[in-house]
C-alpha cells in the first residue's frame, strides 16, 4: 500500500536513516473504561486499523500523565489506552461518515473521546527489500539483491556488476535488518585460486573479524571465511554421503577435506577418516575442528597435494594402523548420577570408572570423497595402479569413489539430464583411461547436488573403483 511505503530517494549512495520518516494522519478512540477497547475491536473489526506491523491498540499516557515517547503495544503501566480507527478516517469529522451506524452508536454510548493522532513510521518499520526498492534506480527493481547466505555471523552476497556501485548501501541495510549478522561481504570475482577461495570485499560491519563459527550436522566448525572454502548450501550433500554411504568403522579418504564438513560428521558416526587439504589455512582449521568436535581418535588430518594423497592413500592407511596397532581405544561418555540441586547434604555421587570401546581399523579403504567440483575429475587418473603393491585379497570389495563436478552447457542449449550424465561419464572414462567395458554407465550413480546457475549443474558421481584401474600395471 503506497501510503505505508517508505519515501523514495534514488540518488542516495550512503544510507541516511533519518530520511525514512513518514507521518500517517489517523484518529484514535479514547475510552473511559479500557475494557471497552477489546469489545469494540471484537465487534467492529472493520472500524479499526488493520495494517501489518502497526498495532491498533496504542499507548496514550503513562501514570505520571506524560505522553509516551514511542507508539508501542499497551502494557500494565498505562492509565490510558487508545484504539486506532481505520486509515480511511484521517480527521475526527470523518468518523460518522465512514464508520457503520452501529460503531458510531457504540462510541456515543460509551462516551468515547475522538482525538486526532499522527502515527510516525521510521527506518525501523520497513523491511530490507522495502528500503532498497526506495533507493535503488528504477531499472534495477525487478531483482532487488536481498538474497544472501549466512556463515556464522557473516552474510555473503554475490552482487551483479550493476549493483556494485551501491554495495555499501545494500550491505548496511542488510546488516541493520538482520540482528544475527555482524559483517556483510560481497564476492568480488569468481573462485580462481587453487584453494577455492574468492576475493571478497567487506561492504558493511566489522571487517576485522572474519573468523566464524558455523553449526552443521550437530558439529561446530570454526574457520576464517576469507581464507578457506565454505559453502553452506552444501549442507544436505555433506549429510547425504555421511548418512547414505559411510558406515561405522569404515575407512574414508577425504581428498579435498577443507575444514572438515564431510570428515568431522563422519568421525562422529564413527567412521575412520583420512582427511586431506592442500590449503595451509584449511589444514589449520581442520585440525582445530577435529579437536573442537572431539573426533581426533577417528579423523586424521593431512596437508598434501590431492594427487599425491590419492597415490599414497594405501600407505597412509598402513601408517595409521601401525601407529595405532590396528586398534583405536575410544573413551565412552559416562552418564553418572548428579547431586540434586539445593541438597548440599546429599553424599557426592560415586565417581564412575572411565570405560572404553575398541574399534578395529580396517586394512582397506571403503570410500574416496573428492569434493572439488571445478577440477576433481582431473585427479581421477591418479587411481591408475594405486593398489599395485597391495595384496589383492585386501580389496576383494573395492572402494567407492564419490567425485563432484560441474557440467556447464550453453544458454539456449536444450539438453536432457541423461545427456548431461553421459557427458560427465565420458569425462570420467577419459580421465581414468578406461572403457565402458571396465566401468559401465549403469555402474555410476549420478546425483544432482544443486544448480549453481541455470546452465551450470553440480553433480556427485558415485561408483566403485574398477579393479582393472586400481591394479593396472
Write a brief caption for the model.
The protein contains eleven helices and 19 strands.
Overview of this structure, please?
This protein is an alpha/beta fold. Helix content is about 25%, strand content about 25%. A seven-stranded mixed sheet has the order 13-12-11-16-17-19-18, sandwiched between helices. Strand 6 (about 155), helix 5 (about 165-175) and strand 7 (about 185) form a beta-alpha-beta unit. The longest helix has 18 residues, at about 305-325. It starts with about 20 loop residues before the first strand and ends with a helix. Residues about 60-80 have low confidence and may be disordered.
Task: Describe the SSE topology.
Blueprint: E1 22-30, H1 35-43, E2 57-62, E3 78-84, H2 95-98, H3 101-109, E4 113-121, H4 128-135, E5 149-151, E6 154-157, H5 167-177, E7 183-187, E8 200-205, E9 211-216, E10 219-224, H6 235-244, E11 251-254, H7 263-268, E12 272-276, H8 280-292, E13 299-302, H9 306-323, E14 327-331, E15 356-360, E16 367-370, E17 400-406, H10 417-432, E18 445-453, E19 456-464, H11 467-470
Parallel strand pairs: 6-7, 11-12, 11-16, 12-13, 16-17
Antiparallel strand pairs: 1-3, 1-4, 2-3, 5-6, 7-8, 9-10, 14-15, 17-19, 18-19
